Amino acid sequence: MRKLLVSWLVAVLACGIVAAQGMKEGRLTVIRAGSVIDGVSESAKKNQLIFVRGNKIEKIADANTPIPAGAAIVDLSNTTVLPGLIDSHTHIFLWGEDPAKGGYDENILKAGIALRAARATYACKRTLEQGFTTIRDLETEGAGYGDVEMKEAIEEGTIPGPRIFASTRGISSTGGYNLEGYAPELAMPKGVQIVDGPVEARKAAREQLDHGADWLKVYMTHRSWVGKKGELVSQPTLTVEELRAIVDEAHGWGKKVACHAYSGIGLQRALDGGCDSIEHGLALTDAQIAQMIRQGTWYCPTIAPYYGDWAPENTPGGQRDRKRASDHEVSVQKAAKAGVKTVFGTDMGGIPWTEPMAAEFEYMTKFGFTPMGAIQAATSRAAEMLEMQGEIGVIAPGAFADMIAVSGDPLRDISELKKVKFVMHDGKVFKNEVAPK
Ligand SMILES: [Zn+2]
Fold this sequence. Notes:
It contains twelve helices and 18 strands. By secondary structure, the chain is an alpha/beta fold. α7 links the parallel β13 and β14.
């Protein structure tokens, strides 16, 4: 009996020591925030203290709460503090596709893997300095499994960058991706893994998952043009059976599938095949919006890329570009009104990495989102899609200490998010340009 009591005491003491050590893990940093938008609440809270221990948020308290001696203090009392932003659609391995610089093809035909990795390194730094502490990178455009390796380099601390959800090579069908337009006898490299038939589709999914894909990216439409009735026509790629094989495989691994789909048959196949997120979704019908709500499909509209670089007005390309934008605007507004689960995505890489990622917020608020709704699409909603709810995209106890600050009030002027002054990523201050009060 006494032996039992002694061992019980030892066990209790040991637990106590472990718990105390846990509490001491990492130094305490206290952020004085003038205003906090926590990513979930519908309004901001004034004058808060955010306690950060190691790489996690410990607690949030009123400004008059005592601060323990020895804590590092970061004074952001003249700023608005938000969770680190999440961009759910990027391409760190794309370099702008400027036609004057050879466009998409140049990147694959002339840039070697080291140059592409160097540019991706720049892209990763750009995301972080603009306050995007997490990205879902939707395929490497011919750079193989480079995204998984960039993620590794960031996690081991070799280069600065965001948390990456990698989707590796991307999948489309024959006739469904660039490079194209070359002599038919030439076997050109492709920006994705090409599959035909459910067997090849499943095999590609297995390969990509095996090599570290967190998501799979499937192209369900490719070329688009204005049809005879003035409608946006999109060339479909994979069949429902091919997509189902991929989705079935991904879900079996506990992973998800993002489908690039503009309109029409391909978009319908994406929904019928059970994809988890529709990328772009330029022309959504009412029935498709209803199906997305029923199936819980995420919508990542990526609006900004369709509002720049239009071809001249009286050319087929120019008409297509204008039709894409005008259809998209209606789809985004309808989806917002119907309450389709929507995340913020920029398609950066397609847009040069020198451009501001936060431009997308301005389009979202122009097309039906409240500033808070747009912010949540880039924080807690995206975290939900990425199954990181409560861990990222939120300022709350237990979440990773990913936080940013801006000088003004983004609820009044969303373009404030283009001017991020402070970035903390995983508990470390990456950037602080806030002038002391
Ligand atoms: Zn994209």
